[in-house]
Amino acid sequence: KAGVTQTPRYLIKTRGQQVTLSCSPISGHRSVSWYQQTPGQGLQFLFEYFSETQRNKGNFPGRFSGRQFSNSRSEMNVSTLELGDSALYLCASSPGQGRGNEQFFGPGTRLTVL
Amino acid sequence: GEDVEQSLFLSVREGDSSVINCTYTDSSSTYLYWYKQEPGAGLQLLTYIFSNMDMKQDQRLTVLLNKKDKHLSLRIADTQTGDSAIYFCAENNAGNMLTFGGGTRLMVKP
Fold it and tell me: In this predicted structure, what is the pLDDT of residue A98?
C-alpha cells in the first residue's frame, strides 16, 4: 500500500496570505488528523476528520480550518498567515474506528511565512 | 490539559542498549505510542502498547508500561548509528487525537 502523501512538500508565503495544504491518506483509511510541529511548541494537534466530519479540534484560532472529501483526502487552510505559522504541518492517517488505532504520518509540508 | 514529558537528550555508544523514558498524565489513555523522527522527515510509528499490557517486545524494541506511575519506556537493544533520531512518546486522547511529549534526541556514537 502507498503511504500517506502530502502536497506540497515546501511552501513559502508572505504575511497576510492564505495557504491550502493537501493530504491523501492510506487507501481504506477514513480518519485524517493534522498536527503542527514547531521548535518552540513541539507537536500540537490541530483537528481530526472522519468520514467528512470534524471529530476533534485542538486549541488553534479560527484561521486554521480543514475539510475532508468523500474519498478521505483532506485539506487544511490557514488564512491571514502570521510569521508564527511557520512550521512543519503533518497529517496522520488511520482506519478511524474507535480509539487507539495505528496512526501513520506523512512526510509533512514545511511552510515558511516571510 | 494533559502533559507528556520526556528527557531532552540521550547519548549512547553503538552496540549498547538505549532506554528512553516518558511520563504521561491522562489515566484514561488507552494506547501509548513511540514514534521516530529523522531530520527533515515525518514521524515513523515504531510501536505502541495497549494500556492493559505491562510489556511489549518487537525485535530490538521493548516497551515497558507502569500504569500506576504513568511511566512508559522504550528500550532499544544493540543500538546502531542508524537509530540516531528524535523519539516521541504519545498518548491517545479523544478520538484519534495524540498528545506528544517534547521528544528525546538520541545520539549514537560509533
Answer: 57
